[in-house]
Write a structure and sequence with these properties.
Oligomer: single chain
Radius of gyration: 14 Å
Shape: globular
Number of strands: 5
Number of helices: 3
Bound molecules: adenosine monophosphate
CATH topology: HIT family, subunit A
CATH architecture: 2-Layer Sandwich
CATH superfamily: HIT-like
Order of helices and strands: HEEEHEEH
Number of domains: 1
């Protein structure tokens, strides 16, 4: 397996080297908004310690991340009055992963509303408003 790259974009977000819209953090995990949201409220949860994905993550990293995923899934569902939540996670390029620091996508969903296409930059003002709604629901 390829080694962890300490200069991947999420490692740089963790170090505060590039901006992010943070919604929650604890000692072990960080949650922030996806800049190319496929639904309103689309956020990412990552461990603060390095690992590429589920394949090299420790049980402790996975436990901490999934606890935060659950907390944020409940908050995002409430914030957007959603009927469901999609949780996505990709491993290595062949598995659809583009950023090689473990992350889970949390996407509030409404009945009959499809996800937007991937790779479309979001409106940063709208993302900030969505983040505030999620913080308020936490
Ligand atoms: P994947 O590795 O396939 O799960 O995709 C990486 C995800 O990270 C995509 O949904 C991107 O929109 C998102 N992303 C990439 N760069 C940033 C960033 N600087 N801030 C927030 N989200 C990002």
């Amino acid at each position: 397996m390829t080694a962890y790259d300490p200069n991947n974009i999420f490692a740089r977000i963790l170090r505060g080297e590039i901006p992010s819209t943070r919604v929650y953090e604890d000692d072990e995990t960080l949650a922030f908004m996806d800049i190319m949201p496929r639904s309103d409220g689309h956020l990412l949860v990552i461990p603060k310690t390095p690992c590429r994905n589920v394949l090299d993550a420790s049980p402790d990293q996975l436990e901490a991340v999934i606890r935060t995923v659950k907390k944020l899934a409940i908050a995002a569902k409430a914030a957007f009055d959603a009927e469901g939540v999609t949780i996505q996670q990709f491993n290595e390029a062949a598995g659809g992963q583009e950023v090689f620091h473990l992350h889970f996508h949390v996407l509030p969903r409404h009945e009959g509303v499809a996800l937007r296409a991937p790779g479309q930059m979001g409106d940063m003002a709208a993302i900030a408003t969505h983040a505030e709604k999620i913080r308020a629901a936490l």
